[in-house]
């Protein structure tokens, strides 16, 4: 029986091309929660992954978008609802509450104190390190519009983009690891 | 690892990651390994239990050779070889 080497070779070539276009060493994570402990977990995982040379792309949406606010900045031209949300939502990472044991504010203070004592980087330091390691933060435009948040009031972060859900989905499709917090 | 095995190693670079919390040790190792020659041995000092699991896995990912752990009284010494 004759073996058609050329055909087999072309078939194999096609398969290899497909594999190359498949998933790569990348981690995508939806950061939905606006709680201090959950965003901290997201950033520790992101920095850890980046330290292992994995490409990291985060998708900040809903309550997490408030964590990107810089309390030293403000945005003009907000609607009435936007201004209301602006007052009700936490103004950045330093104002986030814990998902449990918040105890009217005591919880956040407590965990930050313990972290400092045990030499765990603060959430603000985590963001800075993540930025240096090239972690990409994609921000959900819809969440920003719903809550009246604007890019001008966000922190300075080296790799931040405003986008929609398709960005996340396309990135997730190529990633070996996809997470939701 | 035994004391003899440790003494036999020619360590090129020592990274002191004691006192840093996760993901500090991983970051320290990633930054330092650039300064190690191919085939060179790096020693990591750590006081965290988790790091003893993290570093071997990091080595697996980077395809470096994890050589072993030697315990001192209050910290661990982890050895790895940067293989290319």
What would the keywords be for this entry?
heterodimer; A: 181 residues; alpha/beta; Hypothetical Protein Ychn, Chain: A; five-stranded parallel sheet; 7 helices; 5 strands; 44% helix; 16% strand; B: 84 residues; alpha+beta; Translation Initiation Factor IF3; 3 helices; 4 strands; 33% helix; globular
Task: Give structural notes.
The complex is a heterodimer of chains A (181) and B (84). With 181 residues, chain A is of the alpha/beta class. Chain A has a single domain (24-180), classed as DsrEFH-like (Hypothetical Protein Ychn, Chain: A, 3-Layer(aba) Sandwich), CATH 3.40.1260. Chain A has seven helices and five strands. The longest helix of chain A has 16 residues, at 5-20. Chain A starts with a helix and ends with a strand. Chain B is of the alpha+beta class. The chains are: A alpha/beta (181), B alpha+beta (84). At the A-B interface, α2 of A face α2 and α3 of B.
Q: Poorly predicted ranges of chain A (pLDDT <50, ≥5 residues)?
A: none
CATH architectural category of chain A: 3-Layer(aba) Sandwich
Structural class of chain B: alpha+beta
Sheet having the most strands of chain B: 4 strands, mixed
User: Cα distance, first to last residue of chain B?
Assistant: 23 Å
Q: Could you say what the CATH topology of chain B is called?
A: Translation Initiation Factor IF3
Q: Strand percentage of chain A, roughly? A: 15-25%
Number of strands of chain B: 4
Output the number of helix runs of chain B: 3
Largest interface: A-B, 11 and 13 residues
Can you identify the CATH superfamily of chain B? TusA-like domain
In short:
Chain A is an alpha/beta fold. Chain A is 44% helix and 16% strand. In chain A, helix 2 (36-51) packs parallel to helix 5 (123-132).
Helix and strand topology:
The complex is a heterodimer of chains A (181) and B (84).
Chain A: H1 5-20, E1 24-31, H2 36-51, E2 55-60, H3 80-88, H4 106-117, H5 123-132, E3 136-140, H6 141-146, E4 160-163, H7 165-174, E5 175-180
Parallel strand pairs in A: 1-2, 1-5, 2-3, 3-4
Chain B: H1 3-8, E1 11-16, H2 24-33, E2 41-46, H3 51-62, E3 65-71, E4 76-81
Parallel strand pairs in B: 1-2
Antiparallel strand pairs in B: 2-4, 3-4
């Amino acid at each position: 029986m004759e073996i058609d080497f050329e055909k087999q070779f072309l078939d194999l070539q096609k398969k290899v091309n497909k594999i190359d276009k498949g998933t790569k060493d990348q981690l995508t994570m939806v950061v939905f929660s606006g709680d201090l402990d959950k965003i901290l977990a997201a950033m520790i995982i992101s920095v850890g992954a980046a330290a292992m040379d994995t490409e990291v792309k985060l998708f900040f949406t809903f309550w997490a978008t408030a964590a990107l606010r810089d309390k030293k900045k403000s945005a003009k031209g907000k609607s009435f609802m936007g201004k209301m949300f602006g007052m009700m939502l936490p103004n950045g990472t330093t104002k986030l509450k814990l998902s449990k044991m918040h105890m009217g504010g005591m919880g956040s203070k407590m965990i930050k104190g313990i972290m400092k004592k045990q030499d765990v980087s603060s959430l603000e330091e985590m963001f800075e390190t993540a930025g240096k390691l090239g972690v990409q933060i994609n921000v959900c435009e819809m969440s920003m519009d719903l809550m009246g948040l604007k890019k001008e009031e966000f922190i300075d972060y080296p790799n931040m983009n405003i986008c929609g859900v398709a960005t996340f989905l396309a990135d997730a499709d190529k990633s070996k690891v996809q997470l939701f917090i | 690892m035994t004391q003899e095995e440790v003494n036999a190693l020619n360590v090129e670079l020592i990274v002191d990651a004691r006192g840093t919390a996760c993901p500090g040790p991983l970051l320290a190792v990633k930054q330092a390994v650039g300064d190690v020659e191919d085939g060179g041995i790096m020693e990591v000092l750590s006081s965290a239990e988790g790091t003893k699991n993290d570093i071997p896995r990091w080595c697996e990912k980077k395809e470096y050779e994890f050589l072993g752990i030697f315990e001192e009284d209050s910290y661990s010494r982890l050895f790895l070889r940067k293989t290319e």
